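ASSEMBLY PREDICTION REQUEST
Request ID: AP-0331
Submitted by: J.K., bench scientist
Number of chains: two
Total residues: 476
Priority: normal
Notes: Please return the full assembly, not individual chains.
Input sequences:
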Amino acid sequence: MSALRILVVDDDPVTRELVIKKLRQADYDEVETAENGVMAADLIKKDYYDVVLTDLMMPGGVDGIGVLEAAKQKSNRTEVIVMTAFGSIENAVEAMKKGAADYLQKPLNFDELFIKLTKINNMKRLMEDAGDLREAMDITEKNASQTIQELEMTVSRLQDEMSAIRQILSKADVDAETRINMALEALTLR
Amino acid sequence: MIKITPDEIKLLSKYIYDISGISLDQTKTYLFETRLGPLLEEEGLSSYSELYNKARTDPAKAIERKIVDAISTNETLFFRDRGPFEVLQHKILPDLIDARSAKSSGRLSIPIRIWSAACSTGQEIYSIAIILKELLPDMSKYNIRLLGTDISDAAIAQASQGVYNKFEIERGLPPDILHKYFSPNSGNWKVKDEIRAMAVFRKLNLMLPFQALGKFDIVFCRNVAIYFNMEDRKRLFERIADILEPDGYLIIGSTESLTGVCPKFEPHRHIRSIYYQLKKSKGDKP
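STATUS: Completed
Returned structure:
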């Protein structure tokens, strides 16, 4: 079973069913479908998907680019693969400029799709590992910074106290006992 | 990977210190090999001594620049360590604007000059620019100057382009801020012109004089002095003190300290973070 959560968006029911069947056969169990861009945008708003596999040309108010934008708006971590009809690569290139991870030409070559999904899955794991390390580092840095900042403020306060006591003790016009008493009083006040 | 010898480490440590002020721990063999190894391959060289000799004799200093690019740590992210940015947003900028507004009496635009002394690939200065945009609804009332400097040509070039890949973007930037201030750019993200136009970038070696940059209200000098030896660190913060306005602010890395480094500064705490200001001499007004 793959850990990827996938949304398949296509207005053609045959393509949708075929993609779902092939994905499930390849142990991609968390797969949902949407039959148009509007439905896809709704699902993306409600849920997180690791991958959105969307047709570019769809009827209705939201096409593949709209789905891409909705996915990226929700989370930059969602990878979008666009499906495009044979001979319309310029649309796919346009989608990639807007943040799509990759594109596939129809009719789909499923080996190609699985290679792309494996790459995305590997990258996701790397990102998670890097995220864990970063989090551990952040916690360590945060703890260290709190200690250092406490020390910084304490040292600064002690330096001020020392400076005030030095001033008191160097008063030439006051006798030694009074100076000591004044210094002790200054320490007590702090 | 080609191994570096102890003699080569000594040679290169001294050379890197001379050209950049970066004081490398000579016991960290892996640091030399992982950072400079790829450069050896790129130049088709068979030893680190050859790299040293080529760098020394290259009149165009191209190898020198590549060594600095490779060795200077470019670890940075947007809003790295939120504390300093919260202090900037909630304490320093409001106080500074109050102070400068009182001086300008509403006649002139209010100057705000901020220097990111080791800006790396620009994330810090753009984070500051975003905070200014979010905080100040009417930017025309202010004369804002944001300067980012770094010793690495490669870092400055990327900062100036303002293009970041998804890994760089994902670290630290909330999605709403990302979409508001960045545009997709062929699989990457590019900082929008309104933010890019606020900042100026230039190459600068902090070991060399920088008084010509003028005075600043706020200086960010985070996580760079840790690569300098104590004497150079002292000199650096003394010189930063000289270019800071008397009521200006200094922010250093959250795990750095100025104790025993520069007595001209005193720390102030705001919530979870510390910022520094110049100590007031007895004659100064409160």
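REVIEWER COMMENTS: Residues 211 and 242 of chain B are 8 Å apart (CA to CA).
SIGN-OFF: pending second reviewer
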